[in-house]
UniProtKB/TrEMBL annotation:
Keywords for the protein's UniProt record, in alphabetical order: Cell outer membrane, Chaperone, Lipoprotein, Membrane, Palmitate, Protein transport, Signal, Transport
Superkingdom of origin: Bacteria
Subunit structure: Monomer.
Organism encoding this protein: Thalassotalea marina
UniProt membrane topology term: Lipid-anchor
Keyword match Signal: yes
Protein name as annotated: Outer-membrane lipoprotein LolB
Amino acid sequence: MIKLRLFLISIILLGLNACSSRPNLEQDTPTIADTVEQRTQKINALENWKIQGRIAFIQGKERESASLYWQNNLVEQKQELNLNTFLGINIFSLKSKQGIHQLEVDGEEYQSDDLAALLYSLTGLQLPVEQLHFWLFGLPAYTSDQLTFDPITSLPTNLHSSHNSKLWTISYAGYVRKNNLDVSTKLTIRQGDLLIKMQISDWTF
């Protein structure tokens, strides 16, 4: 059970509904689409953000899902990440501050200054945890990342990235405009036979 939960922890740190068609912009009134450069500047100017929603992972015949709460304060270098079952039972709780990560699972506490290494030691999985922040917003984490944009909205539709010699594919299928910034509400991450789905119900920044 702990091994499965730790695997879920790793998955949540990656980032859900694949779609190759044009992203759907969910908003009450039409707006002028930002250029790629304008949107990138707005994202880079953010000092904090918070998302709430659902996450699921599918690998082979296994499927797991949970509710998600993730808050990130970029100025103070703090983050809080909670994953709960739909019955409200906490699967894990992560708190990070200035590079120190504290992870609580089943009453057991783990701490490290290297989150990726900590997760690897617990799960055996090498995961691009630092890259997820960029992928969540549809930004490249590496200069070699390849992005595809919608020709009308200029919003990301697909991102291909190589991490630890493995190909990661992120698809974006749904956008909402919050505080003059378009952010994705549905994304999917694929790596091999692993499929991760995230549906974000609320963005705050």
